[in-house]
């Protein structure tokens, strides 16, 4: 596969101080650096220098999604292939100026999101998360809303080498979500049908079921709006608890995401009208239009506009 893993998701927010408090005091991330209106937030169990970057801005937007590549040669090869395929590059491959450095480049995906691919980024000193410690271990996956999910899926499969894991489907609406993988995790990226391009949700892996539930309870006790959960999905077999951050982005705690054997795995089509598809446990409220709309998010103002940093 061209892409090795998901590195980080970068968000521009008008309520910078409030968001910093939410992610450090409530969500359980560690701030590893602050620089001119930028906050770099790491997961304790992850070697990535940061998994969320906040940027102070007048307007909310997705700044970029960052993926890893094996080495600088893979970065150069991908950039050359994208340029040949008329994918619009934001910057040619070169040294990165953000925390952790490395070698990479940026481009726009088919929906106008800025995507970064990098290699040789410095790793951070991380640790094994202790039993009972309800903080994120790593960034699990990101789900994106798209008005044409087949086109967006094709872009990531064709140009970045993602593989299709599973599909959510409904008899009257057709395909609703595609789960895509870049390694043996069931999905690092998913594409959801929505009214506009935006972030659907960003997901964080917890140590285990106990830590997942403890974290869910802590966020609930802090008065953060819970959208859906706790429960366990069928596709990916992972748990879910979804909350709205102060800017209205949906954030998820999850654990036990399935790992796949590429040689034997065949994608499934799961009917969302089957209650077991959405929640095998039956502990979450049934999926409804009201719940679904919470993760449509605002129209992303960053389409085909590269972030300033």
From TrEMBL:
Gene3D superfamilies, sorted: 2,3-Dihydroxybiphenyl 1,2-Dioxygenase, domain 1
Record-annotated membrane-spanning stretches: none
CDD domains: BphC5-RrK37_N_like (cd08362)
Occurrences of domain VOC (ranges): 5-120, 138-256
InterPro entries: Glyas_Bleomycin-R_OHBP_Dase, Glyas_Fos-R_dOase_dom, GlyoxalaseI/FosfomycinResist, VOC_core
Protein name as catalogued: Oxidoreductase
UniProt source species: Phytohabitans rumicis
